[in-house]
Amino acid sequence: MRSSAFSRRRALRATAAATAVALSVTLLAACGSSGGSTSTATAEDGKPVDLLFWGWAKGTKEVVEAFNASHPNIRITFEEIPAGNAGGYAKLSNAVKAGNAPDVFNVEYPQLPDFVSQGAVQDISKLVGQDLKAKYLPQAAELTSLGGRTWALPLDAAPQAFYYRKDLFEKAGITVPKTWDEFRTAAQKLKAAQPETRIATFFPDDPTTFEAMAWQNGARWFSTSGEAWKTDLTGPETKKVSAYWQQLVDEDLVRVQPSFSQQWTASLQKGETAGYLGASWGGGVLKSNLATTPDAAGKWAVAAMPSWDGTPASGMLGGTTFAVSKDSKKAKAAVEFAAWATTTPEGIKARIASGTSSTYPAATELVPTAAKAFNSDFYGGQDLYGLYAHAADSIKSGWTWGPVMGLTNGTVKDAFGKVAGKTGTIDDALAAAQQATLAELKNRGLKVAQ
Amino acid sequence: MTTRATRTKGTARPGSGARPGATTRTSARAAAPRRRGRYGAPAVLLAPFLVLFTACTLVPIGYAVKLSLFTEHRSGLGFGGTETVFTGLGNYTRALQDEAFRDGFLTITQYCLLYIPLMTALALVLALLLDSALVRAKRFFQLALFIPHAVPGIIAALVWMYLYTPGISPVLDVLETLGAQPDPLGHPLPAVVNMALWQWSGYNMVIFYAALQAIPREVLEAAVIDGAGPLRTAIGIKIPLIRPSLAMVGLFTVIGSLQLFTEPMILHNTAPGVTSTWTPNMYAYTAAFERGDYGLAAASSVLLAVVAAGLSFAVTRATRSRSERAREARA
Question: What is the CATH number of domain B90-330?
Fold first, then answer.
């Protein structure tokens, strides 16, 4: 009797313990990573190479499908992650830290040095031949080589462009401004004619638009001399741009709204904002953001970015690259995929035919392919790519992104918030970012030129 | 011997298969396995908790502490890879010296000063109303006021962001036609407090209401017989008697406030006033994911945890003496 009671209890205890162990094992498994890419499969054994790819650029899904259909030796698994600054970069750096990064991922030009400096990116110099490199626009290719080595393949060049409402400009009797002086005059005329309408927007949440303007004026925020970094966020070229924009904001000639926010979209829909100073990819974004707005189609047009002296000049606003992660053992296949996606007509066609992308390919010989694939009814049939091509040629070379761009941009963004709240100026923001960047460079042990 | 017998007898529970008679007869032989049984059952029952607690709380905390003691160093241009070096308390001093981190605590303090009195007052008034004889459809109101809490924080934040955004928000549109010029996104602190009020008042009201229901009815009857009206009963009898609940809600709210993250993070994208380091949690997030500085992120998280632990200790102590005083008052 007793022994049976004991054994029953023991059995119960054992079951409970087993359940507990099982429970915790499942939970632990759930806590852990969802599998990395550590296998070293090669095409030699007849099996295709499996590549994991993280990205978010528009039309990527279509590109991967087209690649998989035409390449039996490589099989890409595409996982869409949030756009870089919306959480994608956080996810990436976490995965790198945890050792389960994807083989290949998208990273934008400004963040590439940061990722390289964190040791997340593999040096692919040996896999990228001169003939491949020569296919890319030089201004884009130079942003992917750091310290004399190649770290990524450029997908697009992103020359600046000015999108505007033809009808609203006509109503106010203004022509497309060619210089920044004309732009201010046009802004005043537009506001006088339609007090509720502004010519464009200052994005307090987006340092990159401002950076492109500084770049256009010949500023170089970062440069290297020997093994040391030089940081110059407050030079005369930048100051000229900041003074100009400060005045536009102070005189209420531009709207101050976060980029791509509901607010911004709503004011475009209502015709309260008549223009958008963006980049080549903005053509697709604008089109899809306003797709459901009645009568929007056909009213928009694109013009070259105003410049300071009237001659074409452009910076670069964003733009995406393909990078291979540090620990991937399948770099060769990854580079093959990246080269296909960025330099073949099939790769570019698949992206643009998705309908949402107006990517300007960094591989310049594909521009006609892209132009043909892009439906420009929204812009009244205007030849967007012809305009982008001129702008791309006018991108100033020599710009380098810094190695702590996350912090630099974060500081600018926080301080631009005060510009929006009228408690600070653009110059304050640049000074704060210059100081914070220098401190961070030193903190990371990087050399800073005096 | 006697003590052991009573003790063993005490552990015999209904359904355990042991009878008191059997125990006394075989007490000497049974003592050893009995004792094992006494510790065995709690051990088995505690095991799942302890395993999970270790795996999901202690180990991550240990890892965070370890991370916080190291930093990554590069040299030259920084493209030659990183080197992890021990820095002792270096990350802690860096966090404490950073004005942005200290400002985060200032934000939290301002938030608490505005939010806690408002929320407590609102929840208490609602609970007292429900508890009084004045309100009909008690169940309906209880549920209706609780529902906001069932909405996930992130969804609530998105909905509120929509309501705060000029040009889209129907509420702001109506206010504007009435001549007001509200700018909630320009005043992030009240905006966040409002979101928290909406989400938590109903929840805390339920806690207060439950405490009010537990007040002995004869005490309230005695008050009524002594001539106290509803208001006098509420202020003089009910509130003092539910003080422990008030203190508990206060404690949870302070700890919760320290961890303020979701709502400001959502607002960060549209309200320029909400910087990336607006609260200490956001500071840690930014340090890790914008700056790639995991050491600094870990150090600031540990500091935040220490502050939270210190505050809980202080509030618990203050509460205990107060509830003891309340018990004396009752006696």
Answer: 1.10.3720.10
